[in-house]
Amino acid sequence: MAVTSAEIDSQLAAARPPLAKAALTLIRQQPLGAVSGLLVIVMILMAVFAQQIAPYDPIANHYEFMQLAPSAKFWLGTDQFGRDILSRIIWGARTALFIGFSCAFIGSFAGLVLGVTSAYFGGWFDLLFQRIMDVFLAFPLIIMGLAVVAIYGTGAQNVIIAITIPLIPRCARVVRSSALAIREIPYVDAARALGFGHMRIILRHMAPNCMAPFLIMLTTFLGQAILLEASLSYLGLGVQEPTPAWGLMLQGGAEEYAESAPWIAIFPGLAITLAVFAFNLFGDSLRDTLDPKLRSR
Amino acid sequence: MSAAPLLQVKNLKMHFPVTEGVMVRKVVATVKAVDDVSFSLQPGETLGLVGESGCGKTTTGRCILQLEKPTAGEIIFEGEDLAKLDRKGLVAKRARMQVIFQDPYSSLNPRMKVGSIIGEPMKVHGILPDRKQRQERVAELLSVCGLNPKFMDRYPHEMSGGQRQRVGIARALALNPQFIVCDEAVSALDVSIQAQVINLLEDLRDKFNLSYLFIAHDLSVVRHLCHRVAVMYLGKLVELADSDELFEHPKHPYTKALLEAVPIPDPTIEKGRVHRIMQGEVPSPMNPPSGCVFHPRCPIAVDSCKREVPQSRELRPGHWVACPRV
Question: Is B121's CB within 8 Å of A195's CB?
């Protein structure tokens, strides 16, 4: 060998683009993805630093400032109880993202493990499991969520359960199909020949190789879960007053004050739209980056 | 043939059902991938298993490794029938027999570093629970297989095909096995790398007294490496003999045809050689011919070949042929 491995290593390190350069490449190739990524980051910052950013207390009623139009004092106006809408949107981001992330992570991880397990064992187990998943998939997301809330009652924890359960089969189905292909790859046979247990093969050898569809499902679920949480809250089955939540803000103001104080409904609606939009676009560009085969256009 | 055999395969059958229907599965046919195959393997011996594509070589190997559950027959490894072992017993036996796959690109988990690919089996089997010791052992195995121990921190995609195959060999050696199934272990490599890997396999055999079941279709490689050679055709073993005996004095008409198909690397001899091309195609294993499966293509077949399944008989000591006409 004329070139030592140390030299090769250093060359490899030099060839790797620095973080800033990678970010630039992303913006050039996926401008929509970069914008949505930025929106996601802004929302996360809003949620984490709600305490520091929000100009007012989101749940304190100020009866002297009821239904004020957006102004320098109240940037996005106030609602019918005199609560600052901007503050409530900022705090609402915390509720939305907390519930969204919990549901998306729990749902997609459970779906990942179940999907890979189903594909790995195959046979009658796979058949039975997939028919059970079919039953869950037959219900639209919102109906399924409604049913779970109807059984367990409202509250943040139950909302998370209600949204997570219908997400699981959606992820399991997608992951299963790619796990079926992975099961036939020799490294899985090698793992079996080495005497590894089923759990180790499923979690260490198969699941990590289903990452591309898994990550795409995860980001799509984030948007869906946020929308679902807002829908459930709007229907009065989600988080309860006075907790600031986007769906809840729509419920309080939308119908009654649509003409006299439209800002009460417009801004939380905008927040929901932007959040779902951002997560879905982010998922799309992630898909394009991870899997060039799926690239459309 | 004095010591107890390391591995005995007795009347191994692997039939895959072909099913139709969605909920209620109906078996419409069976593919007889391996049909009544028997052989044995001594410690330190290399047995070549040759035959054309689809003849059941790989399936035989997979059955021995218990990656497929055989339809019938016994696989006795180190005195124990593998099919009768419980899960724990089988896991212990798995450490004693290993496999090297054909394709070095798909046989390594792309998400794992070389160090953990080779180290994981030792961790799972509790051979070296200490992380540091394990790392030293991985480094040792890598250098035994002709790789720089620094490759430990690499991912498989950062390596060439030959290097990856060496990693596969190191992984197979991690548990100190007695027996390794080499499933077309060099077929996917280019010729110069092939030679290196074959030499490595030879060195390892001498160093650790390994036994190989060397599944291949490259006859020159088989002759170089194997002590004995078994020839398969359509799921059946047609001839089994010592390597030199088989290559010098092939008896079964199929073996003869197979050996004649090997080109001679000398244009003057090759030019003067009369090529006898075998007639017909390989029949489908779903519907194999009656009697001797080779009879439709056999140049010396007689009427009785269509009816009677030929039994393997010993022509000379150690030379078994499943053909009554030779």
Answer: yes
